[in-house]
Amino acid sequence: MTKFSIIGGLILLVGVFLNAFAQQPDLVINEFKEPSWKWGDQTLGFDISNTTDMVKFVVTEVDIEFPDSRTGCHRQFLSSGYIEPGAHTLLETDFFVPGNYGEARVTVVLHDVVDTLDALFPGQDFHREEIAFTVVRPESMLEWRDYRIELPPRIEEHPYFDSEFSRVLLALIDRGVSVERMAEMAGTSVLFVNGQIVPMVTHGLMTQTADGYRLNFPIIGVDESREAVRLAETAAGSLAPIIAANLQRYPAFLDSLTRSGLVEPTNILGGTSVLERLYPMVGGLLLWFDLGDRFVDSGVTMAPFVASDICNALSHRYMYAAPAGEGYNGNHLYAYLGEVKSYKIVFADNPVEVDCSRSYSFVGRPGTQRSWQWGDDLRPDFFIVDTLAIRPALDFLASGCETVLAAAAGSLDDLGGRFGHGQNMRGVRYWFWNIVATRCLETLVANGALKDDGKGLYEFSAMRGKL
Known about the structure:
- The chain is of the alpha+beta class.
- The chain folds into three domains: 2-136, Coagulation Factor XIII, Chain A, domain 1 (Distorted Sandwich), CATH 2.70.50; 139-215, Arc Repressor Mutant, subunit A (Orthogonal Bundle); 222-466, no CATH class.
- The protein has eight helices and 19 strands.
- It has helices at residues 164-174, 179-186, 190-202, 222-259, 278-297, 391-398, 402-418, 426-446; strands at 2-7, 10-16, 27-33, 40-50, 56-65, 74-83, 88-97, 102-113, 125-136, 149-150, 206-209, 212-215, 322-323, 333-338, 342-348, 354-356, 372-374, 381-384, 457-463.
- The strands form six sheets. Strands 2-1-9-8-5-6 form a six-stranded mixed beta sheet, with no helix packed on it.
- β3 (27-33) and β4 (40-50) form a beta hairpin.
- Residues 8-24 and 360-367 have low confidence and may be disordered.
């Protein structure tokens, strides 16, 4: 393992440890071309000799993580190349060092493959480098060491924001700090800072102005958050008894719908089976699909992942930055995901693990979708939903809630006006509603009005024609 410390642009060699597999006779490492290990775009390379009479294909895998990062900073990179028989070639890999402070660990693995498009297997490894380096925090950044913000669900994990500097950058932009001053404070280059900003401009998260840059979403401060959380808890405390009372009368109402032939809850393919599963019905469809739409977007379909997906969630329409901590944020994940002939609604009552394709963080343009799947231990409950057929049930459960929504929206808008958000309130409402929905669902369960079925993750698949 190789260890470095980086102070601004200086690299201090601390110690050298090399861990390589025994060389296979047909591929020989002649030289390792090391990068500078500074923040930003880097290139490493291996000069490799092919001692066989066949063309050799090599895949290079670079894995970099900051294990002590509070933002879960972890990146993976792949490149491929070939070496002619009896020749030697320098195979280079471009990768990126995120803007984090503290220890970084890099693992570089070379794979001898038959085809560069094939999956990688452990038996193909023929060389490994393990490197550690430390990025030392400059004195000018010490005041930001404890700065913590929380972003919308799944945007929180996006590589644009998974480093410490990317979070501080938002606050510095909001305060009008110049790019040059930010680079000086962070001990990095203007090129690196601009490299962080330009993708956010491309995605509509920032706008370039004559004086620098302006955020297109609200930063919610601690004082504002404290007042807003009190409003959210008041709203949740008002909604919970209304919904609880409706739930008491709901079985008789559902029975009448069933006897009239309007719904068929026992038919899992009929689009109304969710009506008998009260926890996902209330948590996902009532609190988010119905009431959430009304509160956040005035009844327009709320789609935080519009034109993207759960792995590339960068819509500025619902963006916000709020103080970190459970007391300032809700726990729910809600996603309305459009597909070619249908749409899918996702609801989770707590943060969930999502596995994204390797290349998801390097999308060159907005509106691009990437493959993803739930974490290994997650198995969502699945429902086919006819949202037209379940509308009477939703309206019944929501009866009496409208006045609470209107009062909460008015109070929140007044608060946003006092803190300078103006018309830029959609992100604030989205953040606020997650607190309301989380607290309301918890209250309903705690008071015995609703039973948590323990699943935690639900998918509702609906046809577009059923809107």
